[in-house]
Amino acid sequence: xxxxxxxxxxxxxxxxxxxxxxxxxxxxxxxxxxxxxxxxxxxxxxxxxxxxxxxxxxxxxxxxxxxxxxxxxxxxxxxxxxxxxxxxxxxxxxxxxxxxxxxxxxxxxxxxxxxxxxxxxxxxxxxxxxxxxxxxxxxxxxxxxxxxxxxxxxxxxxxxxxxxxxxxxxxxxxxxxxxxxxxxxxxxxxxxxxxxxxxxxxxxxxxxxxxxxxxxxxxxxxxxxxxxxxxxxxxxxxxxxxxxxxxxxxxxxxxxxxxxxxxxxxxxxxxxxxxxxxxxxxxxxxxxxxxxxxxxxxxxxxxxxxxxxxxxxxxxxxxxxxxxxxxxxxxxxxxxxxxxxxxxxxx
Length: 347
What we know:
With 347 residues, the protein is an alpha/beta fold. It has helices spanning 2-44, 71-84, 103-117, 132-145, 162-175, 186-189, 195-204, 218-228, 245-250, 265-277, 280-293, 304-313, 331-345, and strands spanning 54-58, 88-91, 122-126, 149-153, 180-184, 208-213, 236-239, 255-257. Strands 1-2-3-4-5-6-7-8 form an eight-stranded parallel β-barrel, surrounded by five helices.
């Protein structure tokens, strides 16, 4: 009996060992196949396997000397951006001074931008208002006019709880007849649109398709991607600062919405092209230019009067008028703008 037990035990152990060896071989084969396919993909794509990267411009809004919309000036800006190769524009984002425009001006600019751009590139309209009903009304106006999507930042002044943020966006998404990008800008709202709240919203509303994350801390965007993309891989997460583009897209993001592209759309277009093709040298060169151009944000506060003056210096026919109380660039600031532009164009 004892002998039979030992022989049976030995047989079981041998079978387990054989199974373990077979299992190990299978794992090794699968691992090698995966590695082979990975190398093939990396070779074919130049070292990258990611979404097609896009760069969107948060467009400045051109005004005349009386504070009215400058029709021809805005058309000139749109044509400059399209010729520069950007993938799309965000009308009335922070750079576009939406916060100090009248409702009539907003609707006029929506109509102007959509009719003039005429489907040459994507058009996203910033439609955020302090009231939910006004945001819904302006959003549906933009969608009906032909916008590809709207972008909405939550109310500012008082800090909101996560429950209030979720309720705000949920009510809007339920009543807007088109696609929505969420806009997170904690430095302006005073609070953060968290990855957890975003995930809850996505599970409820299919028309929320993207998120602009305007934060210097890229770790926040990384947490957003690792929380959202496993469940919603097509969700478009966009860097809100130009310099964060490469880091964000290599983590699964879709691109950037960056103000520098108002001034040098061709540099931003070259950057995305380099990333999409996997050209490491071109990526490095583009990143160096973008890093240098980030200095423009430090020349004046706020930065959009500086951007407008710089665009005029590049020859774009527009005025540097901003909504009150924002002042145009000073002579000292203009000197800094010229110096920075000369340095970038010499690179």
